[in-house]
Amino acid sequence: MATLLLPCDGTSNALLAVRHAIDAFRRGDVLMVHVINVQPPFSAYVARHVSRELRTDLHLERAEEAIGEARQQLEAAGVPHHIHTEVGDRARCIAVAARRLHCDRVVIGTARKSALVRAVENSLTAQLLEHCSVPVEVIGSAPAAALERVGIPAGVGAGMALLWVAGS
């Protein structure tokens, strides 16, 4: 029986991983689930002007909002779980937590994207595959629509347009 680490940011994609973990628990494949939410740190400017206690409270409040639905689903299904919150780089915090908590694997939900988008985007999934010392199981959402599969991401398209204008 496995111990899973579920990164959760409250999105529908993250909840796919939660439902996957619930199904695995019902099959008897999972013993424990650790849910983690990683909040980005405040900038140095904000940190200078806002007390540490207030920053901590805000991080905890945002984490609770992000994890709320996952917690409800796990509790309703009777899945044993622990909630963890961190502040820092998401991929690094998740990888460290997976080692610290002795998780057998990380289960992450993700949106299906075109090959072009995956190639130019430094996604959390790609970072976890690079940093994690345990297996990363990726649960994909519904397939991307035809236009999304062939489309150029907005940032790449804007960058190409600027290069074209600059070269003209």
Automatic annotation (TrEMBL):
It holds the Pfam family Usp. Residues 3-138 form the UspA domain. Belongs to the universal stress protein A family. This is Nucleotide-binding universal stress UspA family protein.
